[in-house]
Amino acid sequence: MSEPVVLVRRGAYHDSVTLMRVSRALSELPGVTAGMVAMATELNVSILRDMGFQVPDAGPSDLVIAVRADDAGPAVEEAERLLTATAQPAGTAASEQPPLTTRSAAAREPAGLVLVSTPGEYAFFEALDAVEAGLPVMIFSDGVPVEQERRLKELAEAKDVLVMGPDCGTAVIAGAGLGFANVLSPGPVGVVAASGTGAQQVTSLLDWAGVGVSHVLGVGGRDLSAEVGGLSTRRALRMLDDDPATELIVLVSKPPSPEVARSVAELPLRTPVVRALLGVNRPDAASRSAVAGPAAANPAAADPTAPDPTAPDPTAPDLTAPDLTGAAEEVLRALGRAVPEWPAWLAEPGPRPAAKTLKGLYAGGTLSAEAALLAGTGDFVDFGDDAYTRGRAHPMIDPTLRVETLSRAVETDVVLMDVVLGHGADPDPAASLAPAIARTPATVVIALIGTRGDPQDVDRQAQAFREAGASVFASNAQAARHARSLL
């Protein structure tokens, strides 16, 4: 008979990705009917209790190993072995004491960039160490208070370094991907992104069109908010403007503060900028006049011979895109490249009941926001939001919540969802999502964000989802419009 065993390791921190992989390996061992290895956050303790485990008093900095098996001893030993193996850095002697702070690590060996991926309540202090040491920092952690983010970026401005994040999920520095990153070719386009999945959508589409990138600089989803004021966005734009390999810049963001978006647009740059700011309409003469003031709106009143700055330049491209796909197309046109037909793998048509409701089950916040704007209706959930990732792996890695939600869809639903490929993401998302799609009575539409260089094999993933009954699009905007058309 299976017996439950619950062990608590005080102060033994491991990141959520490691714990998810160890949990998966533990659950697949012979004789194990249930297994989970997790930090004892409130959410994880609740999940363990729902699984029937009695969890002793423990806090978020404590590790819990829970196993139900015919013989739990070997399973616990294997979990401990896997945790020890992942905790020992490659090439480090067991007797060598690792540095205990970011500052001491930077002093031991020179670094060009610091990556912070700790629980959000501790990330500020590690990032502060990096900034004070004069090093740029990428903060993968979420859950960092906005006041701390503002303070870090003000200090970074004084130190002349870039803070990427908090909640910066994607960056590509000179071809090296950090966080969730697609395999991209080198090229002339630089990206500044207050959105990880937004950057992945634009750069993946550019890759389909044969255009590569110089750098992708994530700045965190709140950077263009009124509270933060675009501090990292301005610095990142100036850095790419000074980069000789960057011929054109794309600025991607979730809906920004209008005042901050306006001030960033006024930054003097030599390099042209394509703006993909969700919720911001294309500029017209009226809006430009309102920003410039009455004299600029009617320059003839001051000087009849002066050119009208509000008049459109017929030789200049309109560089504010309506959506992320539109941004990629604006880039191609600005570079003198043809806009291709974006890939799509449509499901076989068949008899279906009339759809009445649209449900968005997204892993990417910006992709969810874009789809909601374009669909104009429906109930959209961003499973990558802090409320869903606290104490568990991001949905780009762990499909559990979306698989469970798919099981509750009904035949009159259209389900619109994203699947994001690349390094750091689920190595085979179709393995778990495609069977769930095949079982659901709903009509499923997928935005598949990835490139042909990604390790998951984008064509194989698309075909698996299509065979499960989903229609698949490389463009999230096209997927959203297709889903809306089914209602």
Record the strand order, biggest sheet.
8-7-10-9-11-12
Biggest beta sheet summary? 6 strands, mixed
* Morphology: globular
Helix content: 25-40%
Task: Write a structural description.
With 487 residues, this protein is of the alpha/beta class. It folds into 4 domains: 3-87, 2-Layer Sandwich (Alpha-Beta Plaits), CATH 3.30.70; 102-277, Rossmann fold; 285-334, no CATH class; 344-485, Succinyl-CoA synthetase domains (Rossmann fold), CATH 3.40.50.261. Helix content is 37%, strand content 19%. The chain has 18 helices and 18 strands. Strands 8-7-10-9-11-12 form a 6-stranded mixed beta sheet, sandwiched between helices. The model is unreliable at 282-319 (pLDDT under 50).
